[in-house]
Specification:
Layout (H helix, E strand, L loop, with lengths): L3 H7 L7 H20 L2 E2 H8 L3 H13 L3 E6 L9 E5 L5 E7 L3 E8 L4 E9 L6 H16 L8 E8 L3 E2 L4 E2 L10 H9 L3 E5 H12 L8 E6 L3 E7 L2 E2 L36 H13 L17 H9 L3 H25 L3 E5 L7 H14 L2 H4 L3 E4 L6 H15 L4
Helix pairs in contact: 3-4, 7-13, 8-10, 9-10, 10-11
Amino acid sequence: MASQHQILEVFSNENASGVAYKNKALKRSLINLLDQGGNTTITELSRELNISVPKTTSLVNELIEDGLLKDYGKVDSTGGRRASIYGLVPEACFFVGVDVKRYYVNLGLLDFKKQLVATTEKVPFILENTEASLNHLLSIINNFIEQLPVDDSKLLSMGISLSGRINTNTGYNYSYFNFPDEPLSLLFEREIGIRTFLENDSRVMAYGEYCCGEVQHEKNVMFLNMDYGIGLGILIDGEVYYGKSGFSGELGHTPFFENNILCYCGKKGCLETEASGAALVRNFKQRIADGATSSALKGKKTNDISLLDIIKAAKQQDTLSIELLADLGAKIGRGLAVLINVFNPELLILGGTLSETGNYLLQPIRNAIGEYSLSLVNNDTQMKVSKLGEKAGVMGSCLMARNKVLTRQE
């Protein structure tokens, strides 16, 4: 069985030159073909790579020795000798994904063939910019890894999805856990023992949906992450768009309203102050204080009400929750109308916790988009709800960690 070092060697150009450099590049291209197209024959691989069959055979055999490929048997043939088909080995290596929400954490394990083989959802957690919160998160991740049915040596990398302003290249989060002297990604690497990549949660969810969700052939896609905050993941020509410093997608912090509500970013009037899960909870509590009633309060105090409680109540036909969601949807829709007018995307995906409310939120969003965006533009934009749902963050975290390791060129 190949070691972690042997596997990583295939994806690194370190100390490689001449023929060795070219062979590594060909191996990565071969793996990419199998990754995108599935199992196939040496003849097909040779044709796609535009190299000879003997050369392709040699590369395939080396990758089999590396533990990354295997012979899946003979393919049916209408005549002549039956050819073998080759594909990636699922258990060759694995990737950990950690999706950190405001009040819980989702974790997952992805194999080499991009299948989630283990998940743990909604582990209780409170995201705060404190050392105690960081230590709790480290403990949750370590406990998950300790219980995995695979050897630690096969874990090539870990992706961590967090809200806030994140520079994935430097590994810093400027919104949460920004108190260590070192990059946050390096702190996780040291404490967990796995190479770690940090990513903004909305970009992660967008990438997961792009690779394994609702996206078909669209290349210009936007993913709206509707949770306690409002975030945006952007893909342009099939590539995640980061912006110069990695801070793209801060839709929730655009100045949209004339109000005196202080956003957690320190500004007033942000879209998030009136069109987010946090705003929904705040407005719910205010309406209760003003004398309204709701089934969401059954067995709970007003101050203990969460976003999930309001969503659950709406699904049970609670009038107050439905009314507040309609108002929220209208405001979110106005924000999306601006995006559609500016970017003219092919596909707009609605995800995050609030997307679970169905038409209670979606219909007001559609109505507002129709009212405030240019019809000539919005007619070209499809709008869909996230297919991956709760798993979007975990899937995206795993896939980004996998992609960053398998495409590195150092």
